[in-house]
Structures are given as C-alpha cells and as structure tokens.
Amino acid sequence: MSLIPILFGHHRSNICQTSPMDIWAPFFGSNCSNTQEKTQRTAAKEVSACAGARIDWKETPEAHVFKADLPGLKKEEVKVEVEEGRILQISGEISREQEEKNDKWHQVERSSGKFLRRFRLPEGAKVEEIKATMENGVLTITVPKGEVKKPEVKPIEISG
C-alpha cells in the first residue's frame, strides 16, 4: 500500500485497508484474513469488506490479556483457538443487515464479513489455562504466564 494517497487525501473504498504495520502480520497478527469477501450494496459500489476486529494486547506480571471489540456478536459467533501450541487464533463473522428490495442506502460505514487474527504467544505461556469471556461486545482472553526456560549454555573447548 502506498502512503501517498493517504497523505494527499485520496482514500480508497476498501474498508479493510492494510496499514504499514501489516508487514509484521505474519509474526504478530493481521487486521484481516486473506479470505476477504466481496459485498454489493444497493446505493454503494462494490467494496472489499472485511470486518476489522480491533484487538489490544497488554502484558501484566501474571498474564497476557487480549481485548477485542466485537459489537453485536454473541460468544457463540466467535471462535478462540490455539494452533501449533503457541498461535492464538481469534475468528468469526460479522453479518451485515438484511437488505430489502425497497431499501435506499445513504451511507455504509459499518464493516461486515469474516475476520481472523493470529498472535504468536511468547514462550512460557500457559496455553492449557487460557480463559475467554465475552461481555457487552468485548472479548477478553487471558493467557497466564509461566516460567520461561533459560536456554542451556554448553561451553565448547577451543583446540589449537
């Protein structure tokens, strides 16, 4: 993505634009999944819709805490998984409002579609003790911290 259009006021209609920080997505998570779906609105041109789940990640002395804003979703509509032992994956789908034949849309700003976010958990994370709660549209995931094993240092004898 070029920064020039943003700096000079040209804004694309892609709801799910990637930010410059998304180059780190393979390591720290991405704002959108690669499976973006196309949606068509009566009064709007075709836009690429991806529900951008905004997530905060903070570390406390006891745990890593993730908070995701998922307004309108129920806990049954969100999936929280751990892949490959250390990849926290949060996914779901924000449905769009049903369109009626005589509806006339004046503005469409709320995103809809599938979302998928992944985070590589640090060593020592107690993945078997992860807790997730959903309250008032906010998903909170708590990953307790454990002891990080110190790497074994083996001295090598220098010959010669």
From TrEMBL:
GO terms for cellular component: cytoplasm. It is found in: Cytoplasm. Keywords: Cytoplasm, Stress response. CDD domains: ACD_ScHsp26_like. Its main location: cytoplasm. Belongs to the small heat shock protein (HSP20) family. This is 18.1 kDa class I heat shock protein-like. It comes from Dorcoceras hygrometricum.
